[in-house]
Amino acid sequence: MADKKITALTSIGTATARADLLHVIDDVAGTPTNKKVTIGEYANALMAPVSLADSNVTLTEATHAGRMLICPDVSADRTYTLPTPIAGMHFWFVGPNIASGAEDGHDVIISAGTGNSIYFQGQVTFCDIDATASDISVVGSDGNSNETFQINVPGHFDIHLVGVSATVWRITGTVSSDTAPAFAD
Predict the structure, then answer these.
(1) CB neighbour list of residue 156: distance below 8 Å, 6 or more residues apart
(2) Secondary structure (DSSP) of 120-147
(3) Disulfide engineering: 183 pairs with which of 96, 121, 146, 160, CB 3.0-4.6 Å?
(4) Tens digit of pLDDT for each residue in 118-159?
(5) Percent of the chain residues topping a pLDDT of 90
């Protein structure tokens, strides 16, 4: 077994368990070291939630992708700027993190870039929380140039963005507020 290539090993396939071990090489750019990690430890580490700062933030694949991004009760309008999309890269925004359950007094803006070369495709469900009757609608991007998504004074939002190509972020989710969210160039 010591002389077997990894590609020659038998696949564990669907029998994979969280306690199973993976071989990893730590610090590839510095001093590479062979280490082990369970599949459970690996999955937990890569999916640990990240609390975003109450400031404008430029997101990165290494720190933010594939994780729940908890947005704070922002003290001013805040912009979270996405990196260039890679097919399959995923960002999940939830918020605002308000103890009282009241609406936030400021907006959250998710930016795909500038110059309309990177844009959103898709729709979100808008739930108007001050309507006298059930008021639910769909708000969609134009699919070819909308590079910002503005969540206006949110009560709650749950937004998923998945890279489709090097220029397109697919957006889906829900926004609950008195004011509809908006896509713009």
Answers:
(1) 95, 96, 174, 175, 176
(2) EEEEEEEEETT-SS--EEEEE--SSS--
(3) 146
(4) 999 999 999 998 876 678 999 999 999 999 999 999 989 999
(5) 69
Average confidence score pLDDT of the chain: 91
Q: Which of 82, 152, 76 is nearest to 117 (CA)?
A: 82
User: Distance (Å, rounded) from C-alpha 171 to C-alpha 149?
Assistant: 9
| Residues 31-55: tens digit of each pLDDT | 999 999 999 998 888 889 999 999 9
Burial 35-66 (b: 16+ CB within 10 A, else e): eeeeeeeeeeeeeeeeebeeeebebeeeebbe
Q: Extract the tokens encoding 13.
A: 């396939």
Evaluate whether 104 touches 176 at the Cβ level (below 8 Å): no
Query: Can you tell me the distance from the alpha carbon of 8 to that of 16, in angstroms, rounded to the nearest whole number?
Result: 18
Instruction: Respond yes or no on whether the N-terminal peptide bond of residue 96 is cis (omega within 30° of 0).
Output: yes
Cα(171)–Cα(163) distance, integer angstroms? 9
Q: Which two tokens stand for residue 132?
A: 């006298």
DSSP classification of residue 116: T
